[in-house]
Design goal:
about 500 residues, 5-stranded mixed β-sheet, globular, binds glycyl-adenosine-5'-phosphate
Length: about 500
Amino acid sequence: MSDATQHVSMESLVSLCKRRGFVYPASEIYGGLNGFWDYGPLGVQLKNNIRDSWWKCTVESPPIGPDGRPVSIVGLDSSIIQNPKTWVASGHVGGFSDPMVDDRETKQRYRADHVKVYVPRDGQGNAFAFMPGDEAEAQKKIKRGAKRNPDDYDVLNLTSLALDQYGNIVAPSTKEAGTLTEPREFNLMFMTYVGALADEDSKAYLRPETAQGIFLNYKNVLDTMRVKVPFGIAQIGKSFRNEVTPRNFIFRSREFEQMEMEWFCHEAETQKWYDFWKDERMKWWRSLGVTGDKLRFRDHEKDELSHYAKNGVGTVDIEYQYPFTAPDYGELEGIAHRSNFDLSAHQEHSGQNMKYHDEATKEKFIPHVIEPASGLTRAVLVVLCEAYREEEVDGVGGDKRTVLKFAPHLAPTKVAVFPLVKKDGMPEKATAIYDDLRTEMTATYDAGGAVGRRYRRQDEVGTPFCVTVDGDTISQDTVTVRDRDSMQQEKVNTSRLKTYLRDKLAAGV
Ligand code: GAP
């Protein structure tokens, strides 16, 4: 059997997601829309399970703080569209942009900071640009077009090249040099109009992060919820970014979901809470079944810090080794000290007092913020990558199976019930068992085809248990329970079945 570190091909994963109802390209019958995805019946269940785990561990049952007591965090669900002054104050209107370059010939657009270039070490001839993952195409151009060896080239970032070198760069999807424009800043916010008139005064934005809705409601929560600093406000919801190059399936999309928590604390305690949340967040990712060496922390360099984090104790990313970044890693969650940038900015722009009055110390201050910000849709991708296996099935001469080894609490369907054959009272018995189980756990009923085939179908969607009603059910009141991961089968009395499954699911199989 293969182990957890096996390489997952994105092609196989994307194909399985489509075939088995996890993720479909959005508006596919019209040719799709780049950067938008729809979550199918199993995808939305998986996404909801991850969302529920985050909400439970953050809001309903938050972790124990450094003083031995549970920390205090409340939930929120704010509007996607807010007063546009929000985004002026937050800095998004002025600064939420990415550098992009256009290819004048093909009209393709690229994030300048993502483009890599093969640059000839001897300075002779053209350089060849490519997007990470597509280096083979550039190598072909070097070998066939330039009749040279890729080893004679250095791989550099496009942004490290001087503008006067652009004339010699062959763009990723062209053959001739000189078609790339200079990098230009491109604001990522989607704009819309509120009301009947499409004029300057009715201009508004779809939120590019859920965080600002939290800052806008900080005063409301403080005044209505009897919370005391330090405390947190958590929110899960959609965010929108007009990404220059949406890529890698659902990793970078234009519409996605975030799970963010703003932790309000005194400036003197920011280091303590930053360290605390770093640890807690890593623990949560591990609780989803993500294995150790595929997750890592990466501290932000000074020059990548966001405008709100410049004077903070730091920003760290939790990164995952995605199939398309391996052996390198890509961002999964950011944990940032946002200082008191946002509340101060909203105080200044709105004229509302954002100070907290500490009754014990009589001090008045604008709290600082530690923010763990993660992507829910990106979490779906990580959980799928982590669960995906192609295995040789022992003892069945090279037979293969594809299996999603989800942690049981994340599995979209917990149990499948089969009648062995469609006769001898088995369908009736299996239906009764299914009707009973479905009141407590997500269950499915499948009577179609050989049992082996039915097992494979459930393996592919990650169902931890299959229950087969057979001859023994009728004569001895037992069913056969088959475990997804070990493929072992066990006879269980029907009267014990629900408790058996409940215990196994709670114990993580
Ligand atoms: N409030 C801070 C903030 O939004 P961010 O690093 O820009 O920080 C947080 O976003 C998380 O949201 C990222 O770590 C990632 O998981 C997710 N995310 C950001 N842009 C995304 C996109 N275009 N598609 C999918 N997920 C995205």
